[in-house]
Amino acid sequence: MEGQDVVGRVRRRIGVAIVASVAGPADPARRRLAGEGWFAADRPIRRVHADASMFAGGITALLLQSLHPLAMAAVAGHSGYRGDPWGRLQRTSYFLAVTTFGQAGDAQEAIARVRAVHQAITGTVPGGRPYAASDPRLLTWVHIAETDSFLHAHARFGAQPLDQAGRDGYVSDMARIGAGLGVPDPPRTEAELTARINTCRPELAATAQARDAARFLLLHPPLPVIARAPYAVLAAAAVSLLPGWARRQLRLPRLPVSEAVLVRPAGHAMIHAIRWAITAPAAPPQSPRPHHLPLRQTARHARQGKRRSMHQGGRRS
After folding, report:
1. Which of 64-73, 132-141, 163-172, 272-281 has the lowest mean pLDDT?
2. Would you call 296 helix, strand, or coil by DSSP?
3. H helix and E strand count, the chain
4. What distance in Å separates the CA atoms of residue 139 and residue 81, rounded to the nearest whole number?
5. Of the segments 10-19, 173-182, 232-241, which one has the largest average pLDDT value?
6. Who wins on pLDDT, 156 or 306?
7. For the whole model, what pTM was predicted?
8. Alpha-carbon distance 268 to 208, whole Å?
9. Rounded to whole angstroms, how far apart are CA atoms 133 and 127?
10. 104-to-34, 62, 80, 147 alpha-carbon distances in Å
11. Does residue 36 contact residue 103 with C-beta atoms inside 8 Å?
12. How many C-beta atoms lie closer than 10 Å to residue 166's C-beta?
């Protein structure tokens, strides 16, 4: 029993660390993600966005989005992804959490904040071509690349993959978020999503900025040494989700045999491990006896007791 308690504590600590890296530390100012929201509990978007496959899908989405030269220029010029890559990921993660699981009012406020940020992002690429983050074509590409990446990640690595009706339902759910952000007529079925991506392909090209971002994301992420090997597995799984034409543009090799034999099984194992960590059961009630309390809690109780004694000693009789 004691061994199980140790495993449970380690599992919870790993889960907290993973969630903190992706979603950011707990912030009491953030509103609770509960109440009546945009999507009912049985909607596909909730199943997909609650699954650990999102860790791989998020990397895939960033790589795919970088293939639009104007979108990549906006990211390179305004996001600070090199200086604060996890901050950008945390903001994206929180936006998805609020719009998927949060109250309707909070979701609408999150949409309004993102739209306001987009209005301020403008510039020109080296050739002089202007860009604006609020451009409907750029919004469309970012939206469909994200939707496609999350959908394919869940199909390959999700705990409970969706059937075709569920996949269409996910695209339809995402369309509500996309429309709120300003995407004109977002796709509402998987077939429409694929057709829209094919329509955008003539606009895509892997610029030097895109390839540089891919190298940074896949080979040189700012991680401690101990985390680099697990991240490399996750990154390889994310690359395996990219369509062949996207890999060729980013100069990422495609090795079908190695992917089938090594990358996919390793990706499944890694995502299963993340899922195991972030779904740890709640900690059991602690015994009130001091020697059964965690060290931090015992120390905190001691400090509180000391403050009470000093306060009582200082009172006027």
Report:
1. 272-281
2. helix
3. 15, 2
4. 19
5. 173-182
6. 156
7. 0.78
8. 32
9. 18
10. 10, 27, 30, 21
11. yes
12. 20
